[in-house]
Structure formats: C-alpha cells, structure tokens
Write a structure and sequence with these properties.
single chain; 94 residues; alpha+beta; WH-like_DNA-bd_sf; Transcriptional regulator; WH_DNA-bd_dom; WH_DNA-bd_sf
Length: 94
C-alpha cells in the first residue's frame, strides 16, 4: 500500500514553486513567475494556497517605489515536499 500523494503539491505549478523554493532561501515573485512561465494571476492564486497550508510564507514590501513579494518555504513545507518526493519514489520503485 502506497502513501497518498499530497493533492496540494500534485498541481504542476505549486510543485514547481516548491521545487524552486526548496533549493533557495527565498525567491521573489518575478523570479518564480519567470521560471514557471505562469501568469501573475495564476501564480498569485497558487502562492495563496501554499501559504494557507503553511508551506510557504509570503512577505510583501517595497523596493524603492515598486512592490516586492518574497516567498520562503517553511519547515512544514520542506517536510511536505520531502514526503511527496518519497511517496513518488514508492510508486517508481514498486
């Protein structure tokens, strides 16, 4: 019997965001948007879902006069990502 894949991380865009954040201390919204080829609206919605789950933190500030959104993965997010990867390995190595 395999563990169930986390449906929150099973979304392509949310998984891409988590994959980028797992290897970076922090990432700006524009970086995530560029790397995932997501629209600003869709990325914003997906970041909200990850934040609501406690997987990431989202900090809004300003860089000069421009708004700056910075995302960081949380300990809970790291644990969820690692569990997701390990569950995938179960399916692959059946």
């Amino acid at each position: 019997m395999f563990d169930e894949l986390d449906p929150l991380l099973h979304s392509q865009l949310r998984l891409a965001v988590m994959s980028l954040l797992i290897s970076a201390e922090a990432a700006e919204f524009t970086f995530l948007k560029e790397k995932t080829n997501a629209t600003a609206g869709n990325l914003s919605v997906q970041l909200d879902k990850l934040q609501e789950a406690g997987y990431i933190t989202v900090e809004k500030s300003f860089k000069g006069k421009k708004p700056l959104t910075t995302c960081r993965i949380t300990t809970k997010g790291i644990q969820a990502f690692e569990k997701y990867v390990n569950t995938l390995k179960q399916y692959i190595n059946k």
